Amino acid sequence: MADNELFPVAADWAKRAWVDAGKYKAMYEQSVQDPSAFWGEQGKRVDWIKPYSQVKDVSFDKADLHIRWFADGVLNVSANCIDRHLPKRASQTAIIWEGDDPSKAESITYQQLHDEVCRMANVMKAKGVKKGDRVTIYLPMIPAAAYAMLACARIGAVHSVVFGGFSPDSLANRIQDCDSQFLITADEGLRGGRGVPLKANADAALKTCPNVKTVLVVKHTGGRIEMAAGRDVWLHDEAAKVPATCAPEPMNAEDPLFILYTSGSTGKPKGVLHTSGGYLVFASMTHQYVFDYHDGDIYWCTADVGWVTGHSYILYGPLANGATTLMFEGVPNYPDASRFWQVIDKHKVNIFYTAPTAIRALMREGEAPVKKTSRASLRLLGSVGEPINPEAWLWYHRVIGDGRCPIVDTWWQTETGGILITPLPGAIDQKPGSATLPFFGVKPELVDGEGKVLDGATEGNLCISDSWPGQMRTVYGDHQRFIDTYFSTFPGKYFTGDGCRRDADGYYWITGRVDDVINVSGHRMGTAEVESALVAHPKVAEAAVVGYPHNIKGQGIYAYVTLKTGIQATEELRKELVQHVRTLIGPIASPDLIQWAPGLPKTRSGKIMRRILRKIAENEHSALGDTSTLADPSVVDDLVNNRMNRG
Ligand code: ATP
Ligand code: MG
Fold first, then answer.
1. What is the pLDDT of residues 444-474, one digit of tens each?
2. Residue 634 has pLDDT above 90, yes or no
3. Is 265 in the pocket of ligand 1 (CB under 6 A)?
4. Which residue among 44, 194, 229, 314 is least enclosed by CB atoms within 10 Å?
5. Is 191 annotated as a binding residue?
């Protein structure tokens, strides 16, 4: 499809942004030619208790794999996100909290954040939590989630946040995997007006987690729950007994900050481990430059703190930069499909960062819910989580941003800690559907199946050939899995698992996960391009394609298509869609089978799970694998019952 549709950097953006095109080139060159000098300088953006003398100490060689940044530096992440701002920002809002109920909101200043975090830290200490202990956090999107994470960072405990939508089993697995003995949860969460029984789920999970000695419970909805004597305590009771100051624990740069289990689009969740110094430097720097954050901006990332996006871009990056960050408890369509835009107007949000799944869902509802709102405060839009179909990009740009706001399509992973490929809004012209160019210090490489590095305009496996400070350090408790997963397929490089195309301008286009690649008559095809062609049809809301065994072609293309609200599924439309893809991409990409899908199976972070769709297409729905991370397992039944006969 059109690679050359260009949205150039506007002149006012080039002027006001931290980085313009010339500066991007110069800084990028320096960052990859002399990473130690570059990051040695950037490392100073955080406060060190003991400054580092070493910067980069890395080997991607399997036999001697190690990744260390600022290794002899000592710092505390919570002090960097709170204390160091107090002289200037004690009364500035750190967190704007917007409740699921539109009548509920709160502003938390940096001073209040300090006091709440210190109290929670003191409670944890009083209950015996020590530096290095793992603490599991199972909370809704309420300020206490931020306090809990920062309190762990303050005392050197390693947090593992488990998304509040996960089941008791998923929670139990994650608690056991890192042997966490302390759990922080709430009575209930609220999403779209419905209660989420967090404490009851936790009680069920803890039946198989005998090592958990203490459960700290946040009172949120006031719903009825059971409190186990000797194990469960209320935060408000305990917090009243402790002071609102707590000295931050000096931490080595390479001491663990958190474990985060990946969402599991591709299999058994991995405990991704991030450390303190490099992670914070990278989260802070990417937040400043990618979102062009300036003092006074109101910044909103709609992710849940249970995902890495919430860690790096609701909490650590923004707070390290002294920003005002908005935390939203609810969902995009409650009370109605205007909610996001109402929140933007209410809090005068300038920077808005969300996921393609949300954009596609809102697009399905048409323009009216958007156009009821002003959105005049918006200056910049962002996307993360999946390839954004060009059609959705254009809608986001034209309808949400009124054609005025650049879009940063940010490619990164739980493993990368922060954004690796992205436009910088004042420096890099955007192309709808492309994550564009690498961030400072990031060296992407495309390699073929044998690991040969491909040059110029080409397509291949996306690797990163050198380290950046935010990189994960290991899989918790399974270093061999870390080596096997990321450094063995293509020796000497970090393998992302994603396929990618580079165009003649050097722009990167993520084509989908390599595991999902379809091979039709010897032509390898990413899922993104075919899906984007389908989504480009005016009647299509969302699409997912997978391969299935085909006698002649090796693999055929099986497409699951969700139509826009009110559109009839007919045989004519099926033919029209096949023809549409033929015209846009070519006959090789035309779907062999199209199944109408009222919903697509997604992870709880909203990503399409093609692994499951593939099994259905292959007629192996008895072997769907781990479906525990599915947001709505019932969509699978519908798809199985209505699957196309492939003859
Ligand atoms: P798991 O690794 O457990 O299967 P996951 O890969 O979904 O889960 P994340 O780390 O949240 O977990 O997601 C990272 C992946 O999301 C990337 O590897 C890529 O496939 C996709 N992704 C994220 N952002 C973008 C983007 N801007 N464009 C294209 N793809 C993206
Ligand atoms: Mg992944």
1. 999 999 999 999 999 999 999 999 999 999 9
2. no
3. yes
4. 229
5. yes
Q: What are phi and psi of 243, to 5 degrees?
A: -75, 165
The number of the ligand 1 atom at minimal distance from the alpha carbon of 309 is 11
**398-451 per-position pLDDT tens digit:** 999 999 999 999 999 999 999 999 999 999 999 999 999 999 999 999 999 999
Nearest Cα neighbor of 431 from 449, 452, 410, 407 is: 407
Which residues on adjacent β-strands are paired with residue 218?
186
If one residue of 163, 170, 260, 262 were mutated to test the ligand 1 pocket, choosing by the most ligand atoms within 8 A of its CB, it would be: 262
Query: 83: which 2 tokens?
Result: 């204390």
Q: Please tell me if the CB atom of residue 384 comes closer than 6 angstroms to any atom of ligand 1.
A: yes
Tokens 């910067």 map to which residue?
Answer: 55
- C-beta separation of 279 from 431 below 8 A: no
Over residues 336-345, mean pLDDT: 97
Closest CA to 127 of 241, 252, 203: 241
For β-strands 593-596 and 554-563, DSSP reports them as parallel
- Count of alpha carbons within 13 angstroms of residue 54, beta-carbon side: 11
* Res 264: pLDDT: 61
Q: What is the reported pLDDT for 123?
A: 98
Strands 256-261 and 56-59: unpaired
Instruction: Pinpoint the residues of the chain covered by CATH 3.30.300.30.
Output: 521-642
Q: Say yes or no: CB of residue 305 within 6 Å of ligand 1.
A: no
ipTM, 2 dp: 0.99
366 known ligand binder: no
Where does the pLDDT of residue 2 fall: very low under 50, low under 70, confident under 90, or very high at 90 and above? low
Which ligand does the CA of 527 lie closest to? 1
Pocket flag, ligand 1, residue 411 (CB < 6 Å)? yes
567-590 as b/e: b if 16+ CB within 10 A = eeeeeebbeebbebbeebbeeebb
Q: How far is CA 562 from CA 22, 366, 594, in A?
A: 43, 15, 10
Concatenate the DSSP letters of all residues of 252-311 into one string. ETTSEEEEEE---SSSS--EEEEESHHHHHHHHHHHHHHTT--TT-EEEE-S-TTSHHHI
By alpha-carbon position, which residue is closest to atom 19 of ligand 1?
Answer: 386
CB 329 within 8 A of CB 97: yes
Give DSSP secondary structure letters for 424-448: -TTT--B-TT--BSBPTT--EEEE-
Residue 265 CA to ligand 2 centre (angstroms): 7
| Kind plus residue range of the DSSP H or E element containing 498 | strand 494-502
- The CATH class for the domain spanning 521-642 reads alpha beta
422 lines ligand 1 (CB under 6 A): no
386 is in an annotated binding site: yes
- Convert 171-180 to b/e letters by CB count within 10 Å (16 or more is b): bbbbbebbeb
The DSSP code for 398 is: I
Q: What is the pLDDT of residue 263?
A: 64
Point out the ligand nearest to the CA of residue 269: 1
Read off the pLDDT of each residue in 371-383 and give the average, rounded to a whole number: 98
CATH 3.40.50.980 fits 104-252, yes or no: yes
Intervals of CATH 3.40.50.980 along the chain:
104-252
Of all residues in the chain, what percent carry a pLDDT higher than 70? 98
